[in-house]
# Entry
Amino acid sequence: GPEEVADKIKVNQVGYLPGGTKQAVVPAGKQSHFSVVNTATNREVFRGQLTPAAHWGPSDDSVHIADFTGLKAPGEYRLQVEGLKASVRFRIDSNIYQQLNAASIKSYYLNRSGIELLPQFAGEYARPAGHPDTRVLVHASAVSAQRPEGTVISSPKGWYDAGDYNKYIVNSGISTYTLLSAYEHFPQHYRQQSLNIPESSNAVPDLLDEAYWNIAWMLTMQDPADGGVYHKLTNKRFDGVIMPHEAVEPRYVVQKGTAAALNFAAVMATASRIFARYDQQFPGLSGEMLIAAEKAWRWAVANPNVAYEQPDDIKTGAYGDKQFADEFAWAAAELYIATRNDNYYRTFTLSNPAIGVSSWSDVSGLPWISLAHHVDNLTPAADKNLIRQTVMSEARRLWSRSSESAYRLPMQSEDFKWGSNSFALNQAIMLLQGYRLSKEAAYLDAAQSLLDYTLGKNPLNTSYVTGFGERSPMHIHHRPSEADGIRAPIPGFISGGPNPGQQDADDCPVPYPFAEPAKSWLDHWCSYASNEIAINWNAPLVYVSGAIQVLTAE
Ligand code: 9MR
# Structure
């Protein structure tokens, strides 16, 4: 209940790596010390001093930090402070994020469109295929000379975007890219991972097989006649609470746009360089992706300002970004890395690109992440110091916010928007780039603190990932999880998280228990504004859980 969270000790409910930083949050009180107790022996194994209490704006509460980084022995523990109830149990284990990382990727398989989920892969979440999308209508907003009204195209596969059953190119951009970058940055880790998906027996890493399921769909969203890319494939209205195979409303591709073309170009350019080494398994694919990327780029250059305008008869998600400078910079950078053509680098720098923490509408961090990863292999045209310094300055900005905060988080009240957990994890991605460039532990520690936050070290004492942690979401806004008759939601999904906008309040039969930015969350099916799941929110969970697992062990 609402009042029961304030006096709780908050920990990462999944647990910690032996070599990683380990922090808990303790409500402000008279005590100055904490202890950690092994649950098997009931013995105290660690004792430490609490930091002085400090106030955190986003939750309007005062807390101490308990740091037990010095405890490295694997085992199961609780953290205790005199006068308070002990924390939930947590583990220290050298593989602690492996299962989380795998489940966060497996959730994409479980959200696939156009395929039956077989029991051998999906277990109790097996279900018939939904949305073949082999007969999709070209909407009036998308007609062209070659594809007049009434034209039917085939656009199968892809992932459902979120708790709804539609497929959106703009949001596929950052989502697919983030998964591809996880692989590009940590290939060894992902080559060893088995997700038990239908493609697991091929010689391609499962993460790439999973990404390809969506990339294959994205490729069909390009009009071969002109290279333009449709904004989305959608119903006219959101479906009710039904399973995918029961949702049979007509499907449409809607309006080509600049954001769609550039997201498409960036993803295809990134994918073309990654799939190049799997030419045997995917003959010709890498080259095909690069051609598609450049065609989409040329369409965007010729149509630099086509914003998505939701047609009157279409009521589903808009993803209606109107600023394209960041998408141009991103696509140019990915095309530059893929082709080594300096013209793309010049186009990138000419836009004087800023850096920021990315989201579906602001992708300004992504080109810098890619350039920093490839910095030692770029052509002489690239300003390598600028690339390093730009990423480091953004990581430093986040680190300094984190170090000043009572919860040790860069998150400010204004970061608690729709999908706030993805803002937290995208901050972690940027901090991890700072660590990868500098090897200064402070950046890795700050990223760990954000992962801890999403897994329970937060004002609501809740792990936001389904199936992980002692207290986790049970009623996510996700049609299959709600309609399947199974009590537990599909595992491995991160809830959008606290959102003081509460845009769904009128659609909810119960009020949100709290209004504070970091506490404005409702674990109810009705809460699409705080408790939905989405491919762009899970992707940074994949990246961060995998990266911290790998980098801490090194
Ligand atoms: O993540 C999107 C958020 O930034 C917007 O404020 C919100 C309202 O337009 O839409 C969110 O995206 C939703 C999309 O439009 C449809 N599928 C579910 C997405 C997550 O709620």
